[in-house]
């Protein structure tokens, strides 16, 4: 999605200050970054939201600088590709100031990390963030004492409310041109450093009273136990599914399709047909695959409602911090397919779009796990646009057909994962899954994030969709479809039992995954054919941009292998369904 900025570092002019934001995962670095630069980057309540560095411009009293947000790191001995990005930037030593964000609710761990950062000769200022949450847990910190212990400025902040951030900028420039960093004992062993961090935390932390855990904390505990955590998880997932599927269908049927069919289509058809004579151009614009008809109907009326609701729900789940709780419950199941509970996040993201899922897997600690997640997401997890297309195709005919398609998808995730886990070399190293406190999402941040995702879908999907529809129109109108149809006849008609025109779906499906489904809507298929078409589309091919990301992350050979696997599975399973259904029907 648009928020994963992987550009190279901009060259700063001599006067521009280069500032690096560092800290443990999930301490609020990206919120600090967004507030200081005005650039929206993803933040969410779990470790591993940021998986690459992003940079933006900052200004203070006419002075300019570049701020770099990096993935969170537990220590400077990076164990995941995401952590490596952060550590590399620190070690390159180009930053003139480091802003190290500390978590007021996990002070020991933050101080331990602070000591590692201070070993580098770069001035550091500390931002003690999440103060509101600390206070709600009755943790109070003596800032002056902490400053004295660390020998560096400490500024307390509540980043989501922009509290303390001006002071951060002020101190950043104040420190900027100091010659050296803070003198710390660089010979401490890991154990000695941790002991020191604990003793400092104990000294500066004032816990006024033993407080009762809040309602959210108690609910968080419930979610983590197998009982009632599992029923809660099932309930949450069903409610989410109901909202996305039911809500999307209602939006589509009650609002979007009527607007389209009663207003837009007659309006645009009458304008275009009054201007253009009958012929190919007219048909390409408003015919069976008219660019101005299907190019608008498919993305806006059939897909967008599901995209909006899915990202709405996903963003609430992310910002509340529920996803890692779910990770704990499904950890046992996921470990069988070589995935840790913490990787539930990229996996669920795959139901939105495979790209953030593949990028998000950078937070996983082994190459094997990354490869399993990326292969499974590419193979068997339908993206939200595809889900919208499945519902458009099957929803009005048979809910059972949708259930069958998703059942096949789950089975392939499970069995495919087990096979990959056995086949691929390497270990999946267990990593402790960090459970954040449950939070009530910040409304403003939530809406911004949902909007960002919807906008990025519209930008990324609309143009390829219109172009693809245009391509389909040309192929149909010029009669090319007939020649392509007869070329793939044995496969499409003989093996899959679909009409020859279904080959258009296979052509368009190369561009975007949902386009392997949408053309089937125009073909008057029977239910079996629809299921076969949907299953072929489910596995078929990663869309072009997903293929690009696979190449970037795993190289061309792996991307080609994954694509071969998906296309082979698509035709194999599609054909088996067609032939076994035919066999069963012939018995009766
Ligand atoms: N209540 C409260 N929430 C905060 C504060 N700062 C950040 N958050 C929330 O904490 C969560 C984590 O914030 P991020 O900015 O994503 O954290 P990060 O350090 O960038 O995390 P990684 O990219 O995973 O390393 C989000 O849900 C934020 O909305 C704060 O001061 N108070
Ligand atoms: Mg971040």
From TrEMBL:
It holds the Pfam family Gate. This is Ferrous iron transport protein B. GO terms for cellular component: plasma membrane. Keywords: GTP-binding, Nucleotide-binding. The gene is feoB2. It comes from the Bacteria. GO terms for molecular function: ferrous iron transmembrane transporter activity; GTP binding. InterPro entries: Fe2_transport_prot_B_C, FeoB_GTPase, G_FEOB_dom, Gate_dom, GTP-bd, P-loop_NTPase, Small_GTP-bd.
């Amino acid at each position: 999605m648009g928020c994963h900025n992987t550009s190279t570092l901009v060259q700063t002019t001599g006067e521009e200050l280069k500032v690096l934001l560092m800290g443990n995962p999930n301490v609020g670095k990206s919120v600090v970054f967004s507030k200081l630069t005005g650039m929206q980057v993803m933040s969410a309540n779990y470790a591993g939201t940021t998986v690459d560095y992003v940079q933006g411009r900052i200004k203070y009293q006419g002075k300019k600088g570049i701020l770099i947000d990096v993935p969170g790191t537990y220590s400077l001995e990076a164990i995941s590709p995401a952590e490596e990005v952060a550590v590399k930037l620190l070690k390159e030593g180009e930053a003139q100031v480091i802003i190290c964000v500390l978590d007021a609710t996990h002070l020991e761990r933050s101080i331990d990390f602070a000591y590692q950062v201070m070993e580098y000769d770069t001035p550091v200022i500390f931002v003690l963030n999440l103060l509101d949450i600390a206070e709600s847990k009755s943790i109070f910190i003596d800032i002056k004492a902490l400053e004295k212990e660390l020998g560096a400025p400490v500024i307390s902040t509540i980043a989501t409310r922009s509290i303390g951030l001006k002071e951060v900028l002020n101190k950043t420039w104040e420190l900027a041109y100091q010659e050296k960093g803070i003198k710390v004992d660089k010979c401490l062993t890991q154990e000695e450093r941790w002991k020191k961090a604990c003793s400092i935390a104990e000294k500066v932390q004032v816990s006024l009273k033993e407080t009762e855990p809040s309602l959210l904390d108690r609910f968080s505990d419930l979610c983590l136990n197998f009982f009632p955590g599992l029923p809660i998880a099932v309930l949450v997932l069903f409610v989410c599914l109901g909202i996305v599927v039911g809500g999307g269908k209602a939006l589509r049927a009650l609002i979007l399709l009527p607007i389209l069919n009663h207003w837009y289509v007659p309006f645009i058809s009458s304008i275009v047909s009054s201007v253009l004579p009958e012929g190919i151009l007219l048909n390409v614009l408003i015919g069976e695959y008219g660019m101005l008809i299907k190019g608008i109907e498919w993305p806006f009326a059939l897909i967008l409602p599901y995209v909006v609701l899915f990202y709405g729900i996903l963003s609430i789940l992310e910002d509340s911090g529920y996803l890692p709780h779910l990770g704990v419950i499904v950890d046992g199941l996921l470990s069988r397919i070589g995935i840790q509970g913490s990787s539930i996040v990229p996996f669920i993201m795959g139901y939105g779009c495979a790209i953030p899922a593949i990028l998000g897997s950078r937070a996983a600690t082994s190459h094997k796990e990354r490869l399993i997640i990326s292969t499974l997401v590419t193979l068997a997890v339908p993206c939200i646009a595809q889900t919208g297309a499945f519902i458009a195709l099957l929803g009005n005919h048979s809910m059972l057909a949708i259930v069958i398609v998703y059942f096949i998808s789950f089975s392939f995730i499970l069995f495919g994962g087990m096979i990959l886990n056995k086949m691929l070399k390497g270990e999946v190293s267990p990593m402790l899954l960090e459970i954040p406190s449950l939070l009530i999402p910040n409304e403003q941040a939530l809406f911004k994030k949902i909007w960002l995702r919807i906008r990025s879908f519209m930008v990324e999907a609309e143009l390829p969709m219109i172009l693809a529809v245009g391509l389909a129109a040309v192929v149909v109108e010029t009669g090319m479809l007939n020649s392509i149809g007869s070329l793939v006849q044995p496969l499409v008609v003989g093996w899959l039992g679909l009409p020859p025109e279904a080959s258009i779906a296979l052509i368009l499906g190369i561009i975007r995954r949902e386009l392997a489904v949408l053309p089937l809507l125009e073909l008057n298929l029977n239910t079996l054919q629809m299921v076969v078409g949907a299953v072929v589309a489910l596995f078929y091919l990663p869309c072009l941009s997903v293929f690009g990301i696979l190449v970037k992350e795993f190289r061309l050979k792996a991307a080609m292998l994954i694509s071969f696997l998906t296309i082979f599975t698509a035709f194999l399973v599609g054909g088996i369904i067609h032939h076994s259904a035919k066999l069963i029907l012939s018995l009766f």
